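The material for today's practical consists of a large collection of protein records. An example says more than a description, so a record of this kind follows:
***
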Amino acid sequence: MNTLTLHGHALDHDVTGSAGPTLLLLSGWCQDHRLFDPLVPLLADAHRVIRADWRGHGADRSAVADFGYAEQAEDLVALLDALGVDRVVPVSTSHGGWAALELADRLGSARVPRVAVIDWLQLEAPDAFLADLRAGQDPELWAVGRQRLFDTWLDGADCPPVAEHLSRDMGSFGFEMWARSCRVIEAAYARWGSPLARMAALGEQRPILHLYSQPAEDAYHLAQLSFSAERPWYRAQWLGGRTHFPTLESPTALAWHLAEFVR
């Protein structure tokens, strides 16, 4: 990974491939670029692929001042400018989507013509999820709340890459970053209601693709179909996996849908 200092913070990133459209791969909170290890080789032949770690999420895990998705978007704008990227398709996972949509709003549809989001809870946050977010902000309960989320995201699947990601990667972040992530995510749902509502509020509409495996419930599928019927710029594609991490569980299918969407 390369490192640039942007807005006073180290931002780790790498660039793979050189031909075709530029994709910006963005993890969720308390994750890093390793989430995309299986995906990059599948995309790099036909795309320029950039991976970027959020501030405080790269090799340097020193404590950082508080930040949220607005600051994450500011960092991304600075990174794209520094790399000379004129046109980009953000591909965000989970709650990295809040920053991806903020980036799209700030740069406009000419520079960000499309957005792909991966396994991001599209509807209003369920009570159980909000309870886990609030537990994650409590120094006495955060590890319990985190484990409940880990169990939900793995869903009992026999998927070693996902199990390793949870224990090795996400499990390496401590209370400070975990509490920040829970606070920012809870506040985003309180402000916007849902990611679908945030998408509808974009200053300029553009194609948005949601690729997901969780939750695999008819009501969830149908809610997205209903939203898409009224807003044809939105499309959702269920991948049929078990876990919350299609980049690790279903990278081939994910790469195919992303390439088709960008093409």
